[in-house]
Amino acid sequence: MKDQVHIRNAEAAQLARALARQTGRTIGEVVLDALRQYRPHPMPPEHDNQVARWRRLLRRDRARLTRPEVPIEAFYDESTGLPT
Length: 84
Known about the structure:
The chain is an all-alpha fold. It has helices spanning about 10-25, 25-35, 45-65. It starts with 9 loop residues before the first helix and ends in a 19-residue tail after the last helix.
């Protein structure tokens, strides 16, 4: 059995049906043609700078939030061996 696609967006389904009727093609052909013509817009160069900036800020914040590890011995009194 072939794969099937269900168009859940009412406007997209209506547009696909209308284009299929107007062109005499099937809905599948209309959708396939639209997908072949679609080309996502490349991200602008400043987007890369924003990503790098956010990563730098996250690394800085993570460094601030992490506390140095405290050895277990620090929680006990050396002379008595009991917790402090």
